[in-house]
Write a structure and sequence with these properties.
By secondary structure, the chain is an all-alpha fold. The chain has 4 helices and no strands.
Length: 67
């Protein structure tokens, strides 16, 4: 149950701001609110996981490939 709590911990305002940025980058199309919201959530979760991996000494394939 803790994993679900961690995923739900992304603040609403942070998701909203990221979704708005994505919407603007895509020239403000109408009708894509849900897609941009979900993409924002996905990006923020991925960023959080990358940060956690760095804190615990984990390495991603991207880091290894660029070394």
């Amino acid at each position: 149950m803790e994993a679900l709590t961690d995923k739900a911990a992304i603040p609403f305002d942070q998701i909203r701001e990221r979704a708005y940025e994505i919407w603007e980058r895509n020239h403000r199309p109408a009708g894509f609110e849900i897609e941009f919201w979900l993409l924002a959530e996905r990006e923020l979760r991925a960023e959080r996981e990358r940060k956690r991996g760095g804190e615990t000494g984990g390495r991603s394939g991207v880091e290894e490939a660029s070394s």
